[in-house]
Amino acid sequence: MFEYEKKLQYPIKIKKPDAALAKLIITQIGGPDGELGASQRYLSQRYTAPYSEVKGLLTDIGTEELSHIEMVSAILYQLTRGLSIDEIKKSGFDTYFVDHTSAIYPVAASGAPFTATYFQSKGDIITDLTEDMAADAAVRQTRPSLKADMLKDCRASCKIFLDNLQQSTAYMLIFLYLIDRTGPI
After folding, report:
1. Cβ neighbours of residue 87 under 8 Å, at least 6 residues apart?
2. What is the DSSP string of 39-76?
3. Over pLDDT 70: what percentage of the chain?
């Protein structure tokens, strides 16, 4: 069971809407290395984890990924709030807008909708933890593509992207530790 705390991990206060930036950031929810896939990966894998320590960690990490969806969604909403049709067209956000207006819908920056094929849950702890390490390594490649100059107008609110890089490294070390601790099953 999850408890919902009605506050974001970081305050999100975007001052200036920017559909072009939203078009890039949206992949952090529904893209192949996004938060939706991450949350479902960990929360699905926890059921077949052979040890309570591993189940607990996967539950904790999966739950945290859900909170990231909420923060990235708040960023996206504020980046697209109150845009004119001209701003939407000029930024290339019109292809998204025609189907979803400014609602949050999980897609990649390419426009491809989220799919469960973005993650694996095999029921073998070594395979699953290796998948988890690979997924966090992919995040370490994706996040830096959101360059600091692109995020300058939402620097404090977009702190989540910088913190997630450090978090991904920590998770990779945790998964290595768990693989080593698990050994042959």
Report:
1. 17, 19
2. HHHHHHHGGG-SSHHHHHHHHHHHHHHHHHHHHHHHHH
3. 85
Per-residue model confidence as pLDDT tens digits over 87-112? 999 988 888 888 998 889 999 989 99
Please tell me the predicted confidence (pLDDT) of residue 45.
Answer: 97
| The residue to which tokens 């040890």 are assigned | 51
Which segments of the chain does DSSP mark as H helices, in order?
Answer: 19-25, 27-30, 35-45, 52-80, 85-91, 94-100, 125-142, 159-182
Map tokens 């705390």 to a residue: 5
Domain boundaries, the chain: 19-110+123-178
Give the closest residue to 34 by CA, choosing from 114, 105, 120, 133: 114
Gap between the Cα atoms of 42 and 24, Å rounded: 24
pLDDT for 39-74, tens place per residue?
999 999 999 999 999 999 999 999 989 988 998 999
Helix pair 159-182, 125-142: axis angle to 10 deg = 160
CATH class of 19-110+123-178: mainly alpha
Largest Cα–Cα separation, the chain: 59
